């Protein structure tokens, strides 16, 4: 809801600007800052900075009267720099804030404002300068001796930077893009839901005769212009606004956040409205199980079965800040109880915008309290009966360095969903569509010789960077394996079975498979037995030479792979000839050819202690060199001119 209110400040038309500026921009900035009107405070502090020559005077549509300070006292200059940085940061304009914190630090005012370096590091992280942010945050922690909570913030931000670096390097297999056309406006656009071919969302776009941006709920069908939803005979309130709609299982009841001004305070609560006689009824406030007096309750989400309401509130009984709560609903649609989702889901910081899939028992919500990329990040948890699984950050690009909220799946495409984010704005949430490209990597393990399914193979899905095994299984009689591929991070499959060479295969991020390069679902394992030779096909030489042909090196590369994948084996590389030529000649030639193979394999990084060459000449034929009638047997000689690979020892 912070982003909703922020939009009002940013896009509101300030009245009486001339007189206010002439009065005292610093004092006005201080007043706005104290009231947490940070955008307004930044406007005034910026004017004060111009007066102190901290920035170049900007063209403005009026002529200020009176004298302005051009230089000012050092303490005044430092104060305005810091307050301007704070104001920008507090409404999450980190790009502007970064420069002003830098000015405080580089003009030697850090002793007056010891938190400047911390917030400078936070801004660097938000602006995706992760390495420099880590340097600044660690420098802050080494020097700062004040309240430990700020050291904790710095530690958490360092973790965020390291997490973000990894996420940007190896993102989730998702595509995220901003919705254009009628879904985009000059204000905030967020919290899209779908029902019966219609979309409903919240927007602070200008409507005719508006003097400021007010949030309203809109309905949209196809690509037509969005239409404002008006509620029957709603009471008159100062700056009355509506947002974050959710429909019950019949679509006849809408739950929504409704808020308005009472003096300087904004009051938020959840209401519901019924669809009857082609109009939405006067919103009715939910009871005190949901709306506790003196506290804010926002962001309703009704489950698909209509039985529960998830919502956000800062009421007592939570873990701190805004928390996610759930209530059971009675037949009338009101709440019969209220339960905080507990410390596994909620933190001492803010959690917002819950979505719950009843069938999958899957909760998606946004939090600032866990390691993430910055601002609100999406997290995923599953209901495990009496507890929730540990929330998992859903990663980049679903999350960004800004605020990311309001997840909703598309009803017609299981791989499509919608989110709201201010990642492309300094002020306002926008609507984004996302496509989930994550997939299941699956296939069958077979015997290389028989081509039959191979049960009993241990297949491990391994992170190639951390070397951690993500998941492993043993194939059953179907010999099928299946693993989730979720990111562009490099993974590999490790396949192991007694009596077979272990095989290690890189997993391509696109999930397309073909044989042992995973572009085809079948992976074959080669059987072996100690001291039993395996003929290597297509190791070719020129006549009367031991020089390897290029195509022979391709075949030997496969042996290098086997040696790398099976580091505990020691092998013999044997070469054989047919009976043409003398025994001595054939022995010498075969030894030279075997050595050529070994030299090539060793050149690829295999230790020479693991493989040695053996020439057998014509001593071990596997077929007759001549026919029974004494004539030459070309086919037999071809079989005898072979290269073999024999496992001698398995450690």
Automatic annotation (TrEMBL):
Keyword Disulfide bond found: no
One GO cellular component, as annotated: cell outer membrane
Signal peptide as annotated in the record: 1-19
Subcellular location: Cell outer membrane
Main location: membrane
InterPro entries: Bact_OuterMem_StrucFunc, CarboxyPept-like_regulatory, OMP_bac, OmpA-like, OmpA-like_sf, TPR-like_helical_dom_sf, WD40
Region (Disordered): 622-651
Keyword Membrane: yes
Keywords annotated in UniProt: Cell outer membrane, Membrane, Signal
UniProt domain OmpA-like: residue ranges: 530-651
Protein name from the UniProt record: WD40-like Beta Propeller Repeat
């Amino acid at each position: 809801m912070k982003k909703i209110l922020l939009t009002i400040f940013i896009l509101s038309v300030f009245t009486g600007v001339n007189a206010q500026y002439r009065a005292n921009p610093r004092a006005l900035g201080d007043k706005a800052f104290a009231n947490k009107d940070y955008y307004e405070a930044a406007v005034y502090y910026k004017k004060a900075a111009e007066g102190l020559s901290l920035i170049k005077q900007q063209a403005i549509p009026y002529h200020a009267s009176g004298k302005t300070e051009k230089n000012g006292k050092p303490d005044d200059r430092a104060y305005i720099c810091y307050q301007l940085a704070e104001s920008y940061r507090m409404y999450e304009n980190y790009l502007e804030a970064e420069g002003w914190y830098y000015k405080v630090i580089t003009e030697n005012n850090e002793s007056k404002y010891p938190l400047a370096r911390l917030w400078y590091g936070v801004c660097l992280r938000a602006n995706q300068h992760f390495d420099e942010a880590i340097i600044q945050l660690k420098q802050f922690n080494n020097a700062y001796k004040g309240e430990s909570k700020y050291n904790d913030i710095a530690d958490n931000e360092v973790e965020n930077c390291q997490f973000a670096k990894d996420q940007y390097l190896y993102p989730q297999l998702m595509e995220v893009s901003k919705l254009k056309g009628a879904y985009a406006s000059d204000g905030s656009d967020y919290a899209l839901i779908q029902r019966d071919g219609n979309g409903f969302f919240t927007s602070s776009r200008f409507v005719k005769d508006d003097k400021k941006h007010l949030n309203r709920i809109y309905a949209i069908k196809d690509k037509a212009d969005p239409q404002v939803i008006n509620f029957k005979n709603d009471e008159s309130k100062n700056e009355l606004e509506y947002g974050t709609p959710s429909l019950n299982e019949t679509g006849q009841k809408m739950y929504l956040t409704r808020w308005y001004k009472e003096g300087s305070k904004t009051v938020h609560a959840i209401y519901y409205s019924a669809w009857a006689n082609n109009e939405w009824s006067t919103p009715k406030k939910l009871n005190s199980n949901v709306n506790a007096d003196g506290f804010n309750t926002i962001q309703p989400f009704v489950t698909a079965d209509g039985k529960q309401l998830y919502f956000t509130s800062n009421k007592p009984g939570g873990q701190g800040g805004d928390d996610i709560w759930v209530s059971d609903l009675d037949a009338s649609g009101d709440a019969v109880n209220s339960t905080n989702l507990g410390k596994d889901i909620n933190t001492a910081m803010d959690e917002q915008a819950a979505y719950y899939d009843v069938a999958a028992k899957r909760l998606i919500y946004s939090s600032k309290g866990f390691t993430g990329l910055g601002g609100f990040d999406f997290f995923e948890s599953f209901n495990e009966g009496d507890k929730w699984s540990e929330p998992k950050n859903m990663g980049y690009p679903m999350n960004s360095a800004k605020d990311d909220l309001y997840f909703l799946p598309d009803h017609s495409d299981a791989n499509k969903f919608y989110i709201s984010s201010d990642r492309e704005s300094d002020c306002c949430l926008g609507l984004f569509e996302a496509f989930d490209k994550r997939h299941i990597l699956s296939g069958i393990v077979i015997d290389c010789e028989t081509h039959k399914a191979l049960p009993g193979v241990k297949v491990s899905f391994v992170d190639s960077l951390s070397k951690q095994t993500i998941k492993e299984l043993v194939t059953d009689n179907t010999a099928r394996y299946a693993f989730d591929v979720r990111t562009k991070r490099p993974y590999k499959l490790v396949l192991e079975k007694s009596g077979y060479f272990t095989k290690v295969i890189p997993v391509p991020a696109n999930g397309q498979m073909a044989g042992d390069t995973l572009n085809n679902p079948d992976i074959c394992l080669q059987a072996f037995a100690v001291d039993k030779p395996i003929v290597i096909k297509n190791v070719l030489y020129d006549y009367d030479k031991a020089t390897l042909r290029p195509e022979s090196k391709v075949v030997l590369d496969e042996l290098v792979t086997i040696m790398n994948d099976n580091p505990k084996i020691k092998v013999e590389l044997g070469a054989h000839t047919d009976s043409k030529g003398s025994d001595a000649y054939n022995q010498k030639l075969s030894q030279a050819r075997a050595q050529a193979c070994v030299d090539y394999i060793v050149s690829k990084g295999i230790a020479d202690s693991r493989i040695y060459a053996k020439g057998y000449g014509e001593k071990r034929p596997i077929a007759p060199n001549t026919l029974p009638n004494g004539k030459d047997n070309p086919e037999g000689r071809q079989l005898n001119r072979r290269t073999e690979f024999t496992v001698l020892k398995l450690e």
